[in-house]
Specification:
alpha/beta; 322 residues; 5-stranded parallel sheet; 11 helices; 8% strand; single chain; 49% helix; Rossmann fold; elongated; 5 strands
Length: 322
């Protein structure tokens, strides 16, 4: 091979090696790029600020409602539900009220003053959420727009037992007096509706929340009180939750009022209701049956609320929990 041939061969060899290096560099570059894309996406995902969530819409959603009153029935899980609501509220638009004691039947003039008090806490052109241990208020008979009412009920017998023992945990004179009474929950369960011993909660406590104020509502409830309570439950309480179905209650609130409550992925707390540890010996089943009979009107309303609850599950496209 002469010198010209050798020079030409070396030149071709160098060119081939350079071409091979270019191909290898290209392959390495593309491989690195393919590996880096997922890492880059993760970094980008974690650095982009989240877009504010907007309410979803469901067939049962009531997005036009701008005034809600939560009539908190005592010893029916209202504190747990309210804590969940605070974590899930769209805080920029919801004004939580200060609570006040409204667990007694008001005169019509007193009812009017309570309505004025609630109205003063609701700013114009904002969503307003008001909560209180307060019997149903009839806004419309005082020429004020009626807000949307909801509440949550509890099995009457279990709620009654809870209140009986709760009174005995209270501080102050009343709690001491309750503890000093030689009275048992069995004594309460064995009494008649017209002769409940002092120290036993009044029967049909939940019925009073639905009846409201003024005639025909009386305490303890009678048949006329129950009929008015039933009418208000059907006509003026759009939704009644069930404590024993706490998770379903929350899911329904999120779908009925999506402009008030955020979805569950925003919850940093425990979403499952846990009944407080009993500080008493749980009564036998027959005692609960007697207590449900003692709270006869509460039991009827509770059964009615269960049926309405299942209706809302269907309209909100939710399945009943087993």
């Amino acid at each position: 091979m002469d010198q010209v041939e050798r020079a030409r061969y070396r030149k071709l060899s160098v060119h081939a090696e350079m071409q091979e290096l270019r191909i290898m560099a290209t392959l390495i570059w593309w491989s690195t790029l393919v590996l880096m894309i997922p890492i880059y996406c993760v970094i980008l995902w974690n650095t982009i600020p989240p877009v504010p969530s907007t309410p979803d819409t469901y067939p049962c959603s009531r997005n036009s409602i701008d005034r809600i009153v939560y009539a908190r029935i005592g010893k029916a899980g209202s504190s747990s539900l309210l804590n969940w609501m605070r974590r899930h509220s769209r805080h920029l638009t919801i004004a939580f009220s200060q609570n006040f004691d409204g667990e007694h039947i008001l005169t019509l003039e007193e009812e009017k003053q309570k309505i004025i008090e609630i109205q003063s806490k609701c700013k114009p052109n904002t969503l307003c959420f008001y909560e209180a241990h307060l019997y149903y208020l009839n806004f419309s008979r005082h020429d004020v727009k009626q807000p949307e009412y909801f509440t949550m009920m509890r099995d009457p017998g279990h709620r009654y037992v809870s209140q009986f023992y709760y009174w005995r945990t209270l501080r102050g004179d009343f709690g001491a007096e309750m503890r000093n009474l030689s009275l048992t929950i069995e004594d309460c369960a064995g009494s008649s509706r017209s002769n409940v011993p002092y120290g036993c909660p009044i029967p049909d406590y939940q019925t009073l929340y639905f009846c409201g104020h003024g005639p025909p509502c009386v305490s303890p409830p009678d048949e006329a009180t129950y009929l008015q309570a039933k009418r208000n439950l059907l006509e003026n309480f759009y939704f009644v939750g069930i404590l024993e179905r706490f998770n379903e209650t929350k899911a329904l609130l999120q779908r009925i009022y999506p402009h008030y409550f955020l979805p569950d992925e925003n919850d940093e707390g425990d979403s499952t209701y846990r009944f407080k540890q009993l500080n008493y010996t749980q009564p036998q089943d027959q005692i609960y049956k007697k207590l449900n009979q003692l709270n006869f009107y509460d039991t009827l309303l509770y059964q009615m609320s269960q049926a309405l609850f299942d209706y809302h599950l269907g309209s909100c496209e939710l399945r009943k929990e087993r």
